Amino acid sequence: MQIWVDADACPKVIKEILYRAAERVGCPLILVANQPLTTPPSRLIRSVHVSAGFDVADNHIVQSADPGDLVITADIPLAAELIDNDVAALNPRGELYTRDNIRERLNMRDFMDTLRGSGIQGGGPPPLDQTDRQRFANALDRWLAQNAPKS
Questions:
Q1: SS3 29
Q2: Burial of 117 (0-12, 13-18, 19+ CB in 10 A)
Q3: Using an 8 Å Cβ cutoff, are 72 and 6 in contact?
Q4: DSSP bridge partners of 72
């Protein structure tokens, strides 16, 4: 089992939670981005620098993640593709995407895209706050407790 991070848009505070969790449970953590990343020195944590381009990092994650892995992403289409491949997806606000909720999230995303395309400004999500960080840490801990290999 490995944890993959769609790292280009992942908030720094979420990455720091992930670094600590990877060390605590002994789980490999791979951050994928189209820009060079600095990670803490660790045998468990590494970054993969992919070329710039639309969905290049997403495609690398889809091709590399195996069933049973976890991917941290706010990208709903990426999460949908991962779920279809039996890979878990958790967003940085602590919501675990599932087969039961991903279609609804895709529909809402498409609806908001349509609104923005017609000139209605919807804005983006609010900044991550302490509640979001705690919700993410709790969701990650629950997932790891259920899925991390026992030593």
A1: strand
A2: exposed
A3: yes
A4: 5, 90
Per-residue pLDDT of the chain (151 residues; tens, 9 = 90+): 999 999 988 999 999 999 999 999 999 999 999 999 999 999 999 999 999 888 899 999 999 999 999 999 998 889 999 999 999 999 999 999 998 887 777 766 565 566 566 667 666 677 889 999 999 999 999 999 999 776 5
77 token code pair: 């289409």
As a whole number of angstroms, the distance between CA 31 and CA 115 comes to 32
Task: Report the candidate in 84, 82, 67, 68 with the shortest Cα–Cα distance to residue 144.
Answer: 68
SS3 73: coil
* Residue bearing tokens 């091709």: 63
- The model carries a pTM of 0.86
